[in-house]
Design goal:
Blueprint (H helix, E strand, L loop, with lengths): L1 H12 L4 E6 L5 H9 L3 E12 L2 E11 L14
Antiparallel strand pairs: 1-3, 2-3
Length: 79
């Protein structure tokens, strides 16, 4: 958790506005829970987009706003 928290902090310090997590299997409950604890929200699931070890896998999409998120304009348009 410390590594992901640091990554989020560093990205926010560099003025990024969103982070996206692409989790390669909806059965990866620990990974989904870790991202949720760090503030990511589930925004979508791509059903049966991969096939591995004899079974179909979903891909889970999670998103987390950073800094002002979509509440502030990009740096180049600020006055």
């Amino acid at each position: 958790m410390a590594l992901l928290t640091r990554l989020v902090e560093d990205a926010a310090a560099r003025d990024f506005r969103q982070m996206i997590a692409v989790i390669g299997d909806s059965a990866s409950v620990p990974s989904i829970a870790l991202h949720a604890r760090v503030g990511f929200a589930h925004v979508g699931t791509l059903r049966s987009v991969g096939f591995k070890h004899g079974r179909w896998l979903d891909t889970v999409l999670m998103q987390r706003p950073l800094g002002g998120g979509d509440q502030t304009p990009p740096c180049s348009t600020r006055q």
